[in-house]
Amino acid sequence: QQQVKQSPQSLIVQKGGISIINCAYENTAFDYFPWYQQFPGKGPALLIAIRPDVSEKKEGRFTISFNKSAKQFSLHIMDSQPGDSATYFCAASAIQGAQKLVFGQGTRLTINP
Amino acid sequence: DSGVTQTPKHLITATGQRVTLRCSPRSGDLSVYWYQQSLDQGLQFLIQYYNGEERAKGNILERFSAQQFPDLHSELNLSSLELGDSALYFCASSLGPPSIQYFGAGTRLSVL
């Protein structure tokens, strides 16, 4: 019940295209869903996050879509750029308690120029 | 730069040895989290401290222990090391739940 499942494992998108990464969770106690971006040799960095009281959140070219009934959420990267090439992790946590993050397995995104 | 400092960046050691990983949280952050990142297990939560006290435990082995000191820096101690302990170990800090976790650059541990 603690798992967060992420797909695809790897994704190749042309420059200017839309990158879409999907995640699903089971634990209904989760109420905070961040996405982290990780470049080689660096730690994960928060990209964007959403709480289940909204269905969508947009920050620049990055959008999270959230479907509470399906227990799914996704990251859309519009107008993908080569600089977006990185590994993306979805995560989930429960505000109550320690707020430990449960991460998906990660998606390696490559944007071809 | 996240403001979270981890040392050392790389650590190479032998099986059976003991190592200490250090984390200095962002200024003002009271909470420290430790995560392990390996190819087969992904990013896994190990343990969390809040203002010097253990707050939550994840899949942390009994051979591993951690503490948070009065100046809020934290150390993760790994003992009786095995080949399978080779991984990236990340520290994250936050003001305190619920708030954003900021990650350090990690310590890469290689057990030979």
Structure description:
The complex is a heterodimer of chains A (113) and B (112). Chain A has 113 residues and is mainly β. Helix content of chain A is 0%, strand content 52%. Chain A is built from no helices and 11 strands. In chain A, strands 2, 4, 5, 9, 10 and 11 form a 6-stranded mixed sheet that branches. In chain A, strands 1-3-8-7-6 form a 5-stranded antiparallel sheet, with no helix packed on it. Chain A starts with a strand and ends with a strand. Chain B is mainly beta and 112 residues long. Helix content of chain B is 0%, strand content 54%. Chain B is built from no helices and 11 strands. In chain B, the strands form 2 sheets. In chain B, strands 2, 4, 5, 6, 9, 10 and 11 form a 7-stranded mixed sheet that branches. A 4-stranded antiparallel sheet of chain B has the order 1-3-8-7, with no helix packed on it. The termini of chain B are far apart. The mean pLDDT of chain B is 94. The chains are: A mainly beta (113), B mainly beta (112). At the A-B interface, β5 and β10 of A face β5, β9 and β10 of B.
Report the major sheet of chain B.
7 strands, mixed
Q: State the shape of chain A.
A: globular
Order of helices and strands of chain A: EEEEEEEEEEE
Large-scale geometry of chain B: globular
Strand content of chain A: over 45%
Structural class of chain B: mainly beta
- Supply Rg of chain B: 13 Å
Number of helices of chain B: 0
| Distance, first to last CA of chain B | 31 Å
Order of helices and strands of chain B: EEEEEEEEEEE
Beta-strand portion of chain B reads over 45%
Mean pLDDT of chain B: 94
